[in-house]
Write a structure and sequence with these properties.
The protein has about 300 residues and is of the alpha/beta class. About 45% of the residues lie in helices and about 15% in strands. The protein contains twelve helices and ten strands.
Length: about 300
């Protein structure tokens, strides 16, 4: 019961706070729930999912309790225990798992399709989960190499004014991909695999003219590709390969007047079998709570601005 309710009944208090109209009484190993029938059923389901998670070896904490409550409160929802028990990758005893229904569907899409587009705001795990699946595919020998790429487009800065060689100039753009890699593999292993060419991290421009066979390719920050660059990238795909394209269409850093390849590709590829589009939202943000609220606040602001523009 301590595992179920939390130290000092902290997890129980989270459930009570989420369902204020429900009475929850704990006596020994028995929990009695009273109140509105709909909310009572939800609370019973929440505790049932908690038990499933504990039975599968999970430790209940504030994060997965909050996720379980959120999922159960959806009108149509999957089993929270199934979502939180999915596993993309394990490194040094730490499992990388989806934390929302959207992330679970994203992982399922990557498993089932040749090309998957993960579109959503910052903090939704779209790049991190894609890279976890890439490392897993390499570990299982489903592919011979991993290729991670980004367009080197400035967010308010100028690449030419950065000091150093070409690779030193582009390193800041690729650094987030390296950071994720080091989370999933030992540093010595990453260095060795990069020296062998098994893992390649390069700007998108370096993909031109190549055919990428037996590879897991991740294109990050795809909102900063032009339609021509997007076509170039997608046509690099060879036999035995899989690609994941990630981006946030609300953060385009292309020069004014240039269209984003990520914004137009959905209209072009909608009906192709083996191509999936996964939309992640503010509800899938798994960073600090305030990040989720910031994302939602900006979404509301952008909607209001679009409405004003339409009226004008």
């Amino acid at each position: 019961m301590v595992s179920l309710l939390g130290s000092g009944d902290g997890l129980l208090k989270m459930v009570e706070s989420a369902f204020p109209g429900v009475g929850i009484l704990v006596r020994g190993n028995e929990i009695t729930v009273t109140g509105d029938p709909d909310d009572t059923n939800r609370v019973v389901e929440v505790f049932g999912e908690f038990v499933k998670l504990l039975d599968r070896g999970h430790t209940l904490d504030e994060a997965n309790v909050a996720t379980t409550i959120t999922i159960v409160c959806d009108a149509e929802h999957e089993s929270p225990a199934e979502v939180l028990s999915d596993e993309a990758l394990t490194h040094r005893g730490r499992a990388i798992r989806p934390k929302t229904v959207g992330q679970k569907r994203y992982l399922d899409a990557i498993r089932s399709n040749t090309i998957t587009f993960g579109i959503g705001p910052a903090g939704t795990g779209k790049t991190y989960l894609a890279m976890a699946m890439a490392v897993l595919a390499l570990r299982r020998k489903e592919v011979n190499r991993i290729i991670l790429t980004r367009p080197a487009v400035e967010a308010g800065e100028r690449l030419g004014f950065l000091p150093g060689t070409l690779f030193e100039k582009i390193d800041p753009y690729l650094r987030p991909l390296f950071d994720a890699l080091y989370d999933m593999m030992d540093a010595e292993q990453v260095t060795l695999l990069m020296e062998r060419g098994t893992i390649e991290v390069a700007p998108l421009a370096f993909m031109r003219g190549r055919t990428l066979n037996d590879s897991f390719i991740v294109l990050d920050e795809a909102q900063n590709t032009t339609p021509e660059q997007m076509k170039m990238f997608l046509t690099r795909l060879g036999f035995g390969s899989k690609a994941v394209v990630t981006g946030d269409v609300t953060q385009v850093d292309l020069p004014s007047g240039r269209h984003s390849g990520l914004q137009v590709v959905r209209d072009i590829l909608t009906d192709i079998d083996g191509v999936a589009f996964c939309e992640l939202s503010g509800r899938d943000v798994v960073r600090h709570r305030i990040v989720q609220e910031i994302v939602e606040a900006y979404r509301v602001f952008d909607d209001l601005q679009s409405g004003d523009g339409a009226q004008g």
